[in-house]
Design goal:
The complex is a heterodimer of chains A (251) and B (426). Helix content of chain A is 40%, strand content 28%. Chain A is of the alpha/beta class and 251 residues long. In chain A, the strands form three sheets. A six-stranded mixed beta sheet of chain A has the order 6-9-10-3-11-12, sandwiched between helices. In chain A, strands 2-1-4-5 form a four-stranded antiparallel beta sheet. Chain A has a two-stranded antiparallel sheet with strand order 7-8. The longest helix of chain A is centred in the middle third of the chain and has 15 residues. In chain B, strands 2-1-5-7-9-11-13-15-17-19 form a ten-stranded mixed beta sheet, covered by helices on one side. In chain B, strands 3-4-6-8-10-12-14-16-18 form a nine-stranded mixed beta sheet, with helices on one face. The chains are: A alpha/beta (251), B alpha/beta (426).
Chain lengths: 251, 426
């Protein structure tokens, strides 16, 4: 599904290399987790894949289902099926959550040459999906993320993911700022979307999110590279011993 | 003291082009106003208060032409249940207007007062405007008091069931309108007043608003889409104890607009919000000039002004909060912001606070900036194309001003108008 080869990325504004040759393949139907210490390049990887400005790819490639991503605009990547659940979802005053969702869904359908959803069809689907995430009518009406609690913002990200039905879901520290109950709710939302045709890349600092979203593969990232790959047991090792042992091992 | 020669000549030429409506209870106020204009002269670019906006076309004897623009759109507020009062190029159109009878309010035409020797409006007409001439002169408003040809005189005595809507239509490309409205809100009374449409090629507008203790007035204006309009408006509001005045003004297009608001708190615990949103493209100069005087205890004032400017458009904000001695517990807030969509546009801001009381909370802020990149990326990452995402972020920028409007329907129609303007420029 997602294939990243020898990806090198530096900051556009300063001469600082962040990613130093990332190789990673996420198969359809699989959940991959990336763990790693602060500053290892995890969030940068998620931004580069989704097309944020400010980064320069100096080498390597990233493809989704065979299509090269790195030359595309963020909205083109989204239409191809890339979705990033933000660590810090952005507040957008004056734009209703529902209007935003419908605009996004229909923009993607249009880009793919599909028919736009009618207002009533859209409403039906969104209400149903919102309900399972405990998002009430008021949250749908309010401006995007404005005045939402940390948990509400993350649930809203998952609602967008559920509505947009992406092929490749990238979750950037979705567990940050969540209490145990909120994390469970978010994880349930993610698990409901696990599907044969969909890949997941879950970026996290902690094992606890992975108790709820069970990964197939765990990668450890440090200093801009994937330094170790293993099964779910690798996350437990990190939880118990920290990163020091693994870093020492590969050094 | 004699006026500078050029100012004297300009003022005389403008006054000579007008004729004084005579008769009735307001003639004295009109004559007094004209003598104010003769004393101060009309504004010119050497006046400090007109440093950022050239008044020449407001003061010229003849109005510059402004092409009539047919948007092909349904006028704003047309779908609302309201009382409609129509002025075409500044002339009242009885056939297009509704019957002016509504419970809780009396509505009369200013022109009809020429036949009346006694009327309540005598205590307001030209009175609030004259108070507003100090400490800063506003000669265009005095000119208006002297020569206004018509307007509405509204006395709110209860809570009318629907809004009163002044609808302006522009049909003549060289029309020059001077309208003067008076609104008196009784104690405990409350009304919503809407104004919309392009009034004339050149429009001089004054509204004097007197709100008694515990009264409330909501004013929402949309100034019309014609591109070459020149509009100078003045709101003079005097607030009694526990009264509320909220105003919001939308400006899209228009080559020159100056909206002045002069607010005076005379009773304690009152609230006044003045807000505005404008979007301008190219030959567009928009000036909000606000003066709020706190002369009572525990009053709250908010000024929220947002301007979206592109292709060399200019935005101006001059806003002042004056807190007089003894006006303790004043809560004054002022924000003026511009979103500059390119390097050619400019925003000139002069925020001022003058405070003579020691127990007050006053804040002001003014910024100029570009579209919020994080928000833009967030929307695009969800598949929203860049142009549409930019429009949504522009609406987000304007939201704080639009949110000052009480009433979801009105706010929604303002937002639709803004979105339409942006979408046409994609």
């Amino acid at each position: 599904m997602l294939e990243i080869k020898n990806l090198h990325v530096k900051l556009e504004e300063e001469d600082k290399q962040i990613l130093k040759g990332v190789n990673l393949t996420v198969e359809a139907g699989k959940v991959h987790a990336i763990m790693g210490p602060n500053g290892s390049g995890k969030s940068t990887l998620s931004y580069v894949l989704s097309g944020k400005d400010g980064y320069e790819v100096t080498e390597g490639s990233a493809t989704l289902a065979g299509e090269e991503l790195l030359e595309l605009e963020p909205e083109e990547r989204a239409a191809l099926g890339v979705f990033l659940a933000f660590q810090y979802p952005v507040e957008i005053p004056g734009v209703g959550n529902m209007t935003f969702l419908r605009t996004a869904v229909n923009a993607q359908r249009k880009a793919r040459g599909e028919e736009e959803l009618s207002a009533s069809d859209f409403l039906k689907v969104v209400r149903e999906k919102a309900k399972t995430l405990k998002i009430d009518a008021d949250m749908l009406k309010r401006p995007v993320n404005v005045g939402f609690s940390g948990g509400e913002k993350k649930r809203n990200e998952i609602l967008q993911m559920a509505m947009l039905e992406p092929k490749m879901c990238i979750l950037d520290e979705t567990d940050s700022g969540l209490d145990v109950d909120a994390m469970k709710l978010v994880a349930d939302g993610v698990n409901a979307l696990r599907d044969e045709g969909r890949g997941f890349l879950v970026i996290t600092h902690y094992q606890r999110l992975l108790d709820h979203i069970k990964p197939d593969v765990v990668h450890i990232m440090a200093d801009g590279r994937i330094i170790k790959t293993g099964g779910p047991e690798l996350a437990l090792e990190v939880e118990n011993n920290g990163y020091a042992d693994i870093l020492a091992e590969v050094a | 003291m004699a006026l500078p020669e050029l100012k004297q000549t300009t003022t005389e030429a403008r006054l000579a082009s007008l004729s004084l409506p005579t008769g009735g209870c307001l003639e004295g106020a009109r004559r007094a106003a004209i003598s104010r204009v003769q004393t101060t002269g009309l504004p010119d670019r050497r006046d400090e208060y007109w440093k950022y906006t050239r008044p020449d076309t407001f003061t010229a004897a003849e109005a510059p032409k402004a092409a009539v623009f047919d948007s092909g759109e349904e006028p704003m507020f047309d779908s609302f249940d309201r009382i409609k009062i129509v002025f075409v190029d500044g002339v009242f159109d009885p056939a297009a207007s509704d019957d002016l009878t509504l419970e809780g309010v009396s509505i009369e035409r200013l022109a009809d007062l020429a036949a009346k020797d006694i009327h309540w409006s005598k205590d307001i007409y030209g009175v609030l405007e004259a108070r507003g001439q100090s400490p800063v002169e506003r000669p265009l408003a005095a000119l208006n008091t002297g020569y206004a040809t018509d307007g509405v005189v509204i006395h709110v005595t209860g809570r009318p069931s629907k809004p009163i809507n002044l609808v302006y239509r522009h049909q003549n490309d060289s029309s020059d309108a001077i309208l003067h409205h008076v609104v008196k809100v009784d104690s405990g009374a409350e009304a919503t007043l809407l104004e919309n449409g392009p009034a004339a090629s050149r429009f001089n507008h004054v509204m004097e608003i007197d709100i008694a203790d515990t009264g409330a007035l909501h004013l929402v204006r949309a100034q019309g889409r014609d591109h070459e309009l020149r509009t100078a408006t003045h709101l003079f509001a005097r607030l009694g104890r526990e009264s509320v005045f909220k105003s919001f003004t939308l400006t899209v297009n228009g080559v020159l607009t100056r909206n002045e608001a002069v607010i005076e708190f005379l009773g304690d615990d009152a609230i006044a919000h003045v807000a505005g949103a404008c979007v301008g493209d190219g030959d567009f100069h928009h000036d909000d000039t606000v003066f709020v005087t706190h002369d009572a205890v525990n009053c709250e004032s908010r000024q929220v002004f947002k301007k979206v400017l592109r292709n060399g458009a200019t935005g101006v904000f001059q806003g002042k909060i004056l807190v007089k001695e003894g006006a303790q517990k004043t809560d004054g807030y002022q924000i003026s912001q511009s979103l500059l969509l390119d390097d050619d546009s400019q925003f000139l801001a002069k925020p001022e606070l003058e405070i003579y009381a020691d127990d007050v909370a006053c804040s002001h802020g003014s910024t100029s900036g570009a579209i919020d990149e994080d928000g833009l990326f967030y929307l695009r990452s969800r598949g929203v194309p860049e142009a549409e995402a930019t429009d949504l972020m522009t609406l987000a920028f304007l939201a704080e001003a639009v949110e000052e409007i009480d009433g979801a329907d009105i706010a929604a129609s303002i937002n639709d108008r803004l979105y339409g303007w942006l979408a046409r420029r994609r």
